[in-house]
Design goal:
The protein is α/β, with parallel strands linked by helices. The chain has 9 helices and 5 strands; from the N terminus they run βαβαααβαβαααβα. Helices cover 57% and strands 13% of the residues. It has a 5-stranded parallel sheet with strand order 2-3-1-4-5, with helices on both faces. The structure holds shikimate-3-phosphate (S3P).
Length: 174
């Protein structure tokens, strides 16, 4: 795959800004975006909490991964991924193989504030234990994976979506 045709994958913790950045970047680059969680929700007709409750977290991960690995074989897209996508080895390998991966590095404190504000919507892992310690634990369990997959790490605090998108564009154009 030519570099210009590679997908752009946005990874990071829940509420780090992935789903907000994807449409902004999509508009600036004129590349369509996909939000994996939103697609799963619409395909299954269940929200994320219901998928976790009625099917289980394990099945959610399997569905997420199956859908992701199939979709990336298609045309170039910007992907807003779910925070747990990097937990799967095949997903991690595919991030490297099929695209450029951007990690949004957002402080836990800010993530916590956002989660409290939107009442943990779609975030069963937070809802079951809605505190900063839980978020830190999740971050600690995943940080190696995030770092391993990321071609570019962007610190998002105090930056507008436009500025963050600009940083991505400068990186991919260099
Ligand atoms: C998850 C993050 C969520 C969603 C699900 C699991 C996670 O997506 O996929 O609740 O394990 O971190 P966001 O990162 O878009 O919140």
């Amino acid at each position: 795959m030519e570099n210009t045709q590679k997908h752009i994958f946005i990874i990071g913790m829940m509420c780090s800004g992935k789903s907000s950045l994807a449409p902004v970047l999509s508009k600036k680059l004129d590349i369509p975006f996909i939000d994996l969680d939103m697609d799963l929700v619409s395909i299954l007709g269940l929200d994320i909490q219901e998928i976790f409750n009625t099917l289980s977290e394990k099945k959610f991960r399997l569905l997420e991964s199956t859908y992701f690995l199939e979709h990336i074989k298609g045309s170039q897209h910007i992907y807003a991924t779910g925070g747990g996508l990097v937990l799967n080895k095949n997903n991690r390998a595919s991030l490297s193989k099929y695209g450029i991966t951007i990690l949004l590095d957002t402080p836990i404190e800010l993530i916590y504030k956002r989660l409290i504000k939107d009442q943990g919507k779609s975030r069963p892992l937070f809802i079951k234990s809605p505190n900063k310690e839980n978020l830190k634990k999740i971050w600690n369990e995943r940080k190696e994976y995030y770092a391993q997959c990321a071609n570019l790490v962007i610190k998002t605090e105090n930056k507008s979506l436009d500025i963050i998108a600009q940083e991505v564009i400068e990186y991919i154009n260099q």
